[in-house]
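Comment thread on ticket #2218

A.B. wrote:
> Attaching the input chain for the structure job we discussed in standup.
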Amino acid sequence: MKALLEKVVGKLVDAKAEGDVIYSGGRSLKLSSQKGSIAEYKVTGSRILGVRAIKDGRVGIAFSEALDEGSLGLMVQHALTNAENSEENPYERLLEISGTVRDELTYSETEVSIEEKTRRAITLETAVRAADSRVSAVPYNSFSENDYESAYLNTRGRHTVFADKSYSITTSAVMESGSAKSSYHDYDVAHTFGELQWEKVIRTSLEHAANLLTESPLPTGKYAVVFSPDCLHSLLGCFSNFTSAKAAADKLNPWAEKLGETVSSTELTLADEPQHSGAFRRSLFDAEGVEQKRLVLIQDGVLTNLYHNSVTARKLSKRTTGHASRGATSSLSVAGTHLVLTGKNPKLLPPRYLEVIQMDGLFSGANRVTGNFSVAVKGYLWVNGERTQTVGKCTLSGNLLRLLATAEVSGPALEASTDRSFFSVPLVFHDLSIAGV
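C.D. wrote:
> Ran it. Output below, let me know if you need it in another format.
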């Protein structure tokens, strides 16, 4: 693969341009079932090259799924033409780094036949249906197996290689009882077939779907709220612009001028940890080939850093933090890796709080500049340590800034999101508005 990348880089050099090329490829198998048999059996593969040409202070990108000599030449020419027709961009230049970094993981596992994979995929539907007579449908059920590889090379000689394999399973349960109807889904990811938690996704989908059959709204008012790790991850992800230097440069980040100021409870510290020990997959380098290290975004409530790539760093007179993001078909952006939210001074849970396990319509109900959000929620009301009500048909409204300011730590141990890219101590958020009955 490196020889192919070198051909593209050579064409850039011949055109007296600098730039880089990204290769991404993958193979996947997906199985899903309906009515006890396989309804979808899909094997796919893809490979694509994307080039970024930088010449005379202008930048152009192009990509190709064909990798023959003629297509590669045409791709580079398109990138150069796009650069000629673009506006001047003095900030987008290659970094002065070279050398090779490889991150290719393989996993020891016993070969599993396609017959066994098919049998287990079918159980994601049949086991849910058989477990409870109230199950009327299992709309989402699938087994996926994915191999992925990528490589990067630029005209300064920086070369990175990544390879990984993953498995995922999903199932769901739609239940009906009288006029009541509910649904819930769960999933799991693993690096080997044997690590997949088949029973867990079936059990969780059934448990919450059954409970949600009895959901009822809360009285309208203010409540203490605890979010599941997945829901808290989604909420913070909805406002990812708050920690993005690209959003700051584009005037879309309300924290752009708040570095060094308190933006959350002083009991909270938020860090990006590319090699976090509990993460599903470590991250060694970004899309510009910069090796990644732990980055503290918020320290004891004070905003200390934003995510930077080389362009945002030059624009804002900073240094790249190693969080460049770019695919073969896209332009340069920024992205985090694994968020870790830690805290101190844990307090007891309040006697009454709402545990949120599901949110619907979050992104459509959020203002990413003001931090305001409004989202339909489902979950459980806890009173004096007991689950007293399954909650639904409610809308939770709040503001991210106030939410972070009122956060209280309620325990020391980190809890992980299902995809293992987010970790947080248990937190309670006070005085959030619930519109119910």
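A.B. wrote:
> Thanks. Noting for the ticket: The chain is about 20% helix and 40% strand.
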